[in-house]
Amino acid sequence: MTYKVAALYQFAAFPDFEALRAPLIELCATHGIRGTLLLSPEGINGTIAGLDEGIEAVIAEMTTGTLFGGRLDNLELKYSGATAMPFKRMKVRLKKEIVTLLQPQVDPTRQVGTYVAAEDWNALISDPDVVVLDTRNRFEVKMGTFEGALDPETRKFSQFPDFVSRTLDPDKNKKVAMFCTGGIRCEKASSYLLSQGFAEVFHLKGGILKYLETIPAEESLWQGECFVFDERVALGHGLAERAPIDEDGEGETPKGME
């Protein structure tokens, strides 16, 4: 049996996020879906898995049904497969932020960097005038990254602003291109850099997962594997599973989704 895995997020106004938790759990349970979803006043983020028809039903309700009232009209979605169910249970967690940066002035619904399609990414990061920045945490970077990318060596995303203040200069680093697993960290990271006066900020649309799905291995500038937030552990080109499950999936993985 093959399972369909959906990584998703959208920044949207959810002042009623607490009230959404119970019906979202019920929706997923009805369709046999497992995974982890984060709800906060700023939107939704997470990864879920199930059979094709179950995933399709849940995504349809999220995007066009009454549960979210049309607020998930631009849901960022990436699909992959799994030979075994990659989650033990269904969790919906309530958070202050769907990705924790601790910079309340940052609002990706107001300003973000320039999206770059996977097909155009190689040319951009090959430009010697572009600073290429991996916004993920250090254990993720160790598993794989793009050639020549800066590693912030962070343990958690909230340390990213400190890295920027110590390492980058908007007067010297005129062009910054950043990437992350699925795109959500770059939404906030690019918004933050723009708020700090960086003039040209780019980010990989759909993240590493979209790049690995789109770009053939022989044309790729990616080195290694991409950590994912479920028991598959890592994916390679074509979003193929690469690593066996060796523990319960908690380990050193982040407490929140990307």
In short:
The protein has seven helices and 13 strands. With 258 residues, it is an alpha/beta fold.
Structural commentary:
With 258 residues, this protein is α/β, with parallel strands linked by helices. The chain contains seven helices and 13 strands. Strands 4-1-3-2-5 form a five-stranded mixed sheet. Helix 6 links the parallel strand 9 and strand 10. The longest helix is centred in the first third of the chain and has 14 residues, at 17-30.
List keywords for this structure.
single chain; alpha/beta; five-stranded mixed beta sheet; 7 helices; 258 residues; four-stranded parallel beta sheet; globular; 13 strands
N-to-C SSE string, H for helix and E for strand: EHEEHEEEHEHEHEHEHEEE
Spatial separation of the terminal alpha carbons:
27 Å
Rg, Cα atoms, Å: 18 Å
Q: Could you tell me the strand content as a percent range?
A: 15-25%
Shape: globular
* Main sheet record: 5 strands, mixed
The largest sheet has its strands arranged as 4-1-3-2-5
| Low-confidence region ranges | 243-258
Q: State the share of residues found in helices, binned by percent.
A: 25-40%
How many DSSP helices? 7
What oligomeric state is this? single chain
Structural class, by secondary structure, is alpha/beta
- Calculate the mean pLDDT score and round it: 89
Number-wise, the strands total 13
Pfam family, one: UPF0176_N
Keywords: Oxidoreductase, tRNA processing
Catalytic activity: uridine(34) in tRNA + AH2 + O2 = 5-hydroxyuridine(34) in tRNA + A + H2O
Function: Catalyzes oxygen-dependent 5-hydroxyuridine (ho5U) modification at position 34 in tRNAs.
